[in-house]
Amino acid sequence: MVRLVCAINIVFALQANQKEAQKAKESALAQLEEEMCLLKATEPANKRKHATLHLKIETDVQCHKDELQRLELELSGLKVSLEASQLNLHSTNPTESRFMEDQLKECLVSYITRMTIPVIEIVSLV
Protein backbone atom coordinates (compact mmCIF):
# COMPACT_ATOMS: atom_id res chain seq x y z
CA MET A 1 0.00 0.00 0.00
CA VAL A 2 2.82 2.37 0.88
CA ARG A 3 4.47 1.49 -2.37
CA LEU A 4 1.30 2.29 -4.24
CA VAL A 5 1.05 5.72 -2.58
CA CYS A 6 4.71 6.40 -3.40
CA ALA A 7 4.16 5.34 -6.99
CA ILE A 8 1.11 7.62 -7.28
CA ASN A 9 3.07 10.54 -5.82
CA ILE A 10 5.87 9.91 -8.31
CA VAL A 11 3.40 9.86 -11.20
CA PHE A 12 1.84 13.16 -10.03
CA ALA A 13 5.29 14.71 -9.65
CA LEU A 14 6.29 13.56 -13.13
CA GLN A 15 3.06 14.96 -14.60
CA ALA A 16 3.65 18.29 -12.84
CA ASN A 17 7.22 18.43 -14.14
CA GLN A 18 6.00 17.55 -17.61
CA LYS A 19 3.40 20.35 -17.50
CA GLU A 20 6.05 22.85 -16.34
CA ALA A 21 8.39 21.73 -19.08
CA GLN A 22 5.61 22.04 -21.66
CA LYS A 23 4.78 25.59 -20.45
CA ALA A 24 8.45 26.55 -20.61
CA LYS A 25 8.70 25.13 -24.12
CA GLU A 26 5.58 27.01 -25.27
CA SER A 27 6.89 30.21 -23.73
CA ALA A 28 10.25 29.83 -25.49
CA LEU A 29 8.55 29.12 -28.82
CA ALA A 30 6.32 32.17 -28.43
CA GLN A 31 9.33 34.35 -27.66
CA LEU A 32 11.18 32.91 -30.65
CA GLU A 33 8.23 33.62 -32.93
CA GLU A 34 8.03 37.19 -31.61
CA GLU A 35 11.75 37.71 -32.28
CA MET A 36 11.41 36.31 -35.80
CA CYS A 37 8.51 38.67 -36.56
CA LEU A 38 10.52 41.62 -35.24
CA LEU A 39 13.49 40.59 -37.37
CA LYS A 40 11.33 40.32 -40.50
CA ALA A 41 9.77 43.71 -39.76
CA THR A 42 13.12 45.50 -39.40
CA GLU A 43 14.91 43.76 -42.28
CA PRO A 44 13.64 46.07 -45.09
CA ALA A 45 14.58 49.20 -43.15
CA ASN A 46 18.03 47.79 -42.44
CA LYS A 47 18.52 46.96 -46.13
CA ARG A 48 17.52 50.52 -47.09
CA LYS A 49 19.95 51.98 -44.54
CA HIS A 50 22.72 49.73 -45.85
CA ALA A 51 22.04 50.72 -49.47
CA THR A 52 21.94 54.42 -48.54
CA LEU A 53 25.21 54.17 -46.64
CA HIS A 54 26.86 52.25 -49.47
CA LEU A 55 25.74 54.89 -51.99
CA LYS A 56 27.05 57.69 -49.75
CA ILE A 57 30.42 55.95 -49.44
CA GLU A 58 30.63 55.49 -53.21
CA THR A 59 29.74 59.16 -53.74
CA ASP A 60 32.32 60.30 -51.19
CA VAL A 61 35.00 58.13 -52.75
CA GLN A 62 34.20 59.52 -56.20
CA CYS A 63 34.30 63.11 -54.88
CA HIS A 64 37.70 62.47 -53.32
CA LYS A 65 38.97 60.87 -56.53
CA ASP A 66 37.77 63.89 -58.50
CA GLU A 67 39.40 66.26 -56.01
CA LEU A 68 42.63 64.25 -56.15
CA GLN A 69 42.61 64.38 -59.93
CA ARG A 70 42.02 68.15 -59.84
CA LEU A 71 44.90 68.58 -57.42
CA GLU A 72 47.16 66.38 -59.52
CA LEU A 73 46.41 68.58 -62.52
CA GLU A 74 47.10 71.67 -60.42
CA LEU A 75 50.32 70.05 -59.20
CA SER A 76 51.51 69.37 -62.73
CA GLY A 77 50.72 72.97 -63.63
CA LEU A 78 52.70 74.17 -60.63
CA LYS A 79 55.62 71.94 -61.59
CA VAL A 80 55.64 73.44 -65.08
CA SER A 81 55.45 76.88 -63.55
CA LEU A 82 58.30 76.01 -61.19
CA GLU A 83 60.46 74.78 -64.04
CA ALA A 84 59.79 77.96 -66.01
CA SER A 85 60.55 80.16 -63.02
CA GLN A 86 63.71 78.18 -62.30
CA LEU A 87 64.92 78.81 -65.82
CA ASN A 88 64.23 82.53 -65.47
CA LEU A 89 65.66 82.89 -61.96
CA HIS A 90 68.80 80.84 -62.51
CA SER A 91 69.87 83.32 -65.05
CA THR A 92 69.26 86.31 -62.70
CA ASN A 93 69.51 85.56 -58.94
CA PRO A 94 70.37 82.06 -57.59
CA THR A 95 69.47 82.90 -53.94
CA GLU A 96 66.01 84.14 -54.83
CA SER A 97 65.54 81.12 -57.09
CA ARG A 98 66.26 78.73 -54.21
CA PHE A 99 63.80 80.56 -51.90
CA MET A 100 60.99 80.45 -54.49
CA GLU A 101 61.71 76.80 -55.18
CA ASP A 102 61.45 75.94 -51.46
CA GLN A 103 58.18 77.90 -51.13
CA LEU A 104 56.66 76.09 -54.10
CA LYS A 105 57.73 72.70 -52.74
CA GLU A 106 56.09 73.45 -49.38
CA CYS A 107 52.88 74.41 -51.17
CA LEU A 108 52.92 71.18 -53.20
CA VAL A 109 53.53 69.03 -50.12
CA SER A 110 50.63 70.78 -48.38
CA TYR A 111 48.26 69.98 -51.27
CA ILE A 112 49.32 66.36 -51.47
CA THR A 113 49.10 65.80 -47.71
CA ARG A 114 45.69 67.40 -47.46
CA MET A 115 44.17 65.13 -50.12
CA THR A 116 45.93 61.83 -49.44
CA ILE A 117 44.65 61.29 -45.87
CA PRO A 118 40.86 61.55 -46.59
CA VAL A 119 41.11 59.23 -49.61
CA ILE A 120 42.89 56.59 -47.54
CA GLU A 121 40.25 56.83 -44.79
CA ILE A 122 37.34 56.43 -47.21
CA VAL A 123 38.92 53.63 -49.21
CA SER A 124 39.50 51.69 -46.00
CA LEU A 125 35.74 51.95 -45.23
CA VAL A 126 34.79 50.32 -48.53
UniProtKB/TrEMBL annotation:
Residues 15-88 form a coiled coil. The keyword Coiled coil applies. Keywords: Coiled coil. InterPro entries: PIR2-like. The keyword Coiled coil applies. PANTHER family: OS05G0141500 PROTEIN, RING_U-BOX SUPERFAMILY PROTEIN. This is Uncharacterized protein. It comes from Heracleum sosnowskyi.
